[in-house]
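debug: dumping io for the single-chain case to check the tokenizer round-trip. Nothing else runs in this session.
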Amino acid sequence: MADEIRVLIVDDHAVVREGLRTFLELQDDMQVVGEAGDGDDAVALAKRFEPDVVLMDLVMPGVDGIEAMRRLRRQVPSARAIVLTSFIDEDRILPAIRAGAAGYLIKNVEPQELARAVRAAADGETLIDPVVASRLVEVLADERDAPRPEQLTPREQEVLQLIGRGYSNKRIALELGVAEKTVKNYVSHVLSKLGVADRTQAALYAARVGRES
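debug: decoded output
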């Protein structure tokens, strides 16, 4: 199928990879294009197969998941990485988000929630485990000198709120009744004004502001 979501599985445990492959291949709209046991192989396979979504473990021998995501961001920017890990400590969460993770899930995630995250990532949206999101908001709330939302125009604030809900540009365009190209411009302005690297970090900023207000 031309519209199948191409998925690359990255985990150093073969049994985990096999379980993920078995589940994902039961989905009518997904195709597992490869498996890797470490970050180095993950990047090599991503360059070869150009997956839409990469399910990325964090703790692996050799090149870990965070470094692999940094490389993917440079070398295969079209691939959206979802972290799938057992760790929720801030020493791993923050670097993963800053490395470009499009989602962050815990390995006890319900299968259908995992499938929803893969579809969301492929559609340009973001899905973060609620426990992880809560931890991130607490950590980011301690950071100083963050830009205030008042620096954004009213329309940019609307866009930020919708980014915070994990909406893709296409969905934001439908919600606001504007062209998708216009939304892309708004998103670019929001990221620049907030001083964040991508929409995932903007979503976390939106969550933080929502908690403070």
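debug: round-trip ok. Residues 180-194 form the longest helix (15 residues).
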